[in-house]
Amino acid sequence: MNLSVGELRFLYNNREVLHEVSCTIEPGQIVSVLGPNGVGKTTLLKCLNRILKPESGTIYLGEENLLGLRTMEIARRIGYVPQRVETGRLTAFDAVLLGRRPHIGWDITAKDLKIVDAAFHRLSMEHLRLCYIDEMSGGELQKIAIARALVQEPKILLLDEPTSNLDLKNQVEILAVIAGIVRQHDIAAVMTMHDLNQALRFSDRFIFLKGGTVHLFGTGDDVTPGIIEEVYGIPVIIGDLGGVRCIVPDHCCIDRSTIPACERTPYDKRRFIGPVAPVRPD
Amino acid sequence: MHFTDGMVPGDYLAYIRRKSLWIVAGVLLVILLFLVSISVGAVAIPLAEVIQTLSGQNISHKWDTIIWNIRLPQALTAIVAGAGLAAAGVAMQSILRNPLGSPFTLGISNAGAFGAAFSVIILGTGQMHSTVADAVTINNPYITTALAFIFCLLATVVILFISRIRGASPEVMVLTGVALSSLFTAGTMFLQYFASDAQLAAVVFWTFGDVSRANWNELALMTVIVVAAAIFFIWNRWNYNAIDAGDETAKGLGVNVERVRMTGMVIGALVTAVIVAFLGVIGFVGLVCPHMARRVIGDDQRYLIPASCVGGSILLLASDTAARLIVAPYVLPVAVLTAFMGAPVFIYLIIRGYRR
User: Fold this and answer.
1) Contact, A277 vs A238, CB < 8 A?
2) pLDDT greater at residue B78 or residue B103
3) Distances (CA, A) of B223 to B158, B216, B220, B232, B317
4) For B85, which of A110, A279, B276, B285 could close a Cys bridge (C-beta 3.0–4.6 Å)?
5) Do residue B3 and residue A149 have CB atoms under 8 angstroms apart?
6) What is the C-alpha to C-alpha distance for residues B317 and B29, in angstroms, rounded to an integer?
C-alpha cells in the first residue's frame, strides 16, 4: 500500500517549517529523510502519523485519507519509534505489549500475548522478555521500541533517528533488523538519519530536505557530492571502500590548524592514502 | 504485517499472577486491619464479637451502638479515603510525569484548607467549647465543608484554565499548582493572623484530617465518588502506561495525551476535593502509597492503580487504628499519624530498592 504525501505544509508559531512536501513511498522500501539540523525532518515524520497536524496537504495510505482518520485508527496503520524512549519499572514484555494499545478494547487477549511473543522471536530477544527495561542498554531499549511499534501491526514504520546514541555494532544491528522486517513483511519504513553512510547503505530512497521543502527525492544513484553540498553546505567526497559507498567531508573544508601537527600530512598526499578512491563530480 | 507464530508465554503469565497475588494479599490485610480497627479503642471489643455484630447478631446493645455508629463508619471512611487519595496520587504522578505528583502538588488541599478557614473566620462557623473530649466544634459543618469543596474546585478551574491557554503540559500544571498552593497557604495565614483564639483553634482543628468526621451519608457520597474515579483510572490504565513511556510514544500509539491529562486531572481533583472537604487535609497517603506499591509490583499501571488503592487503605486504616491507641483514651486525628506510620516504611523501601 503506497503512502502518498501531497503538498504538505506545516506551520509552527506561524513560521512555515514544511513547504509543499510531496513524495510517494512504496511497500518494501526503506526511505531515509536527510538534511541538516532543524530543517524539519522530525516534523515531517510526525506529520505523517498526525502527531503534528499539517496546515494543508494530503496524506493517503492506499485509498485512505489519513488526515480524516481518528488517531487510534492511524496508530493501527502507522508505527512510530520516537527518538527518546522513557524507561520505567516494567518488563520488556509489558513494554512491548503496550504497542497493542491501538487494538486493545477493555483488556488484552491471548492474541495480543501471542503477537508480542512472536515479535520477541522475530528480533531474537526472547531472553530479554522478563528483564526490566530500566536496567537495559541503549541498544536493547531501541529494539524494544521497535518491537513495540511492530506489534501495532503497521503498514508503515516511522523511526526518528533510530541509530543516534548507539555504538557502531548496535547501529548496524538495528538497521539490519529494520531492513529484515521491511523485506519480510512488505511494509515501508521512513526514518530520519544523520549518519549519511548508514543511510546510504540501508535505504532504498532518499528524501533530502532543504529550506523546509524536498530538495531531492530519489535513489542511491541520485545522491551525489553536489546534492550533499547543496543540502548540508559542506563539500564531500563519495568513494568506494571495500565495495561500500562512503561519504566523507572533503579535506578542503577542515580547518587544518586544529589537526595535531604529528597527524598533519600534506593535503595532496593525504587525500589518496588508503583504499579510498575518490569519485569527484568534476 | 502478521505475527502468527507466537505462543502465550507461560513465564510471563506466572509473573503476572505473582503481581495479582500481591494485591490479593493486600486486600486480605485490609480485611484483617478492618476487624482489628473495629475491635480496639477506648473500649476493647473481642474480635469474635465484632464479627458476630457485623454479621447481624445482637450480642449487646452497647457493642451495637459503638460499632454501627462510631467504629464501622470510621474504619470504612479510612478504607475509602485512603484508596481515593492513593488513586488520585498514582494517576497524577503519571499524568504530570512527576514522582512528586499528588493531590497536594496541585494546591487542591491547601485551597480546601483556605476555604475552611474562610468559612470559620469570616463567616463565623466555628468556635471553641470547653469539653475535654471534643474541644473544638465547627458550628455549621455544612457551610465549612461546602466552602472547602468550592475552593478545591476553584483551584482546579484555575489550573485547567491556564492549561487551556498554555497547553496541557506537565510543567505548566505542576508550576501552576505550586503557585496556587503557596497563594492559598498565604491566604490562610493572613486569615489566621486576624482570627480570635477560638477561631484559630477551629481552623487548625479542621486542617488535621480526621476520618471520624464523616457520617454515613457523607461516607456513601465519598464511596460513590472514589469507586467511580477508581474505575475511571483503571479504564485509562493503558493510556497512563503509554504516557509513562513518553508523550511521543503515547501519541504514536494513538493516545490523545492532552485529553487524557486534562480528564485525569479533573477526576483526581474531584476525588481529592470531596475527601478534603469532608475529612480535612490528610497528607502523605496520595504521594507515598503509589511509590510503596511501585517498589513492590513495578510501574505497570494495570497493577499499580489497584495496588496503590489497597496500599492507601492499609496505611490510612492502620494509622487511624494506631491514632486511637497511642494516647488512649484520647484520640489523635489520623493526619498526624500517616506520616509517622508511612515514612519509616517508605524510607526502608527506598533503601531496599525494587523487589526483584
Assistant:
1) no
2) B78
3) 26, 10, 5, 14, 15
4) B285
5) no
6) 10
* Mutation site, B3, B94, B258, interface A, largest A CB count within 10 A: B3
- Integer Cα distance of A193 and A164 in angstroms: 8
Q: Residue type at B245?
A: A
| Separation CA B95–CA B88 (nearest Å) | 10
Give how far B259 is from chain A: nearest CA, Å. Answer: 12
Q: Using CA atoms, how far apart are residues B312 and B325, in angstroms rounded to an integer?
A: 20
Cell 506466572 belongs to residue: B14
Residue A276 confidence (pLDDT): 47
Q: B57: burial class by Cβ within 10 Å (0-12, 13-18, 19+)?
A: exposed
* Cβ burial B68-105 (10 Å sphere, 16+ → b, else e): eeebbbbbbbbbbbbbbbbbbbbbbbbbbbeeebbbbb
| Residue matched to cell numbers 498514582 | B90
How many structural domains does chain B have? 1
Q: What is the pLDDT of residue A152?
A: 93
Pairing of strands A3-12, A56-61: antiparallel
Instruction: Give the C-alpha separation, B194 to B189, whole Å.
Output: 9
All 3 cell numbers of residue B276? 478534603
Query: How far is it, in rounded angstroms, from Cα B8 to Cα B13?
Result: 8
**What is the rounded distance in angstroms from the CA atom of residue B281 to the CA atom of residue B272?**
9
The answer to whether residue B34 sits within a structural domain is: no
Q: CB burial class (10 A; 0-12, 13-18, 19+) of residue B258?
A: middle
Residue B27 within a domain: no
Looking at chain A from residue 172 to 191, which residues have their Cβ under 8 Å from any Cβ of chain B?
Answer: 185, 187
Please determine, for residue B105, whether its predicted confidence score (pLDDT) is greater than 80.
no
Grid coordinates of B90 = 498514582
Q: Within chain A, which residues score under 70 in pLDDT? A: 253-282
Of A85, A121, A130, the CB nearest to B6: A121
Helix (H, G, I), strand (E, B), or coil: what is residue B72?
A: helix
Model confidence pLDDT, tens digit, residues B255-290: 999 899 889 988 998 899 889 888 888 888 888 899
CATH, residue B171: 1.10.3470.10
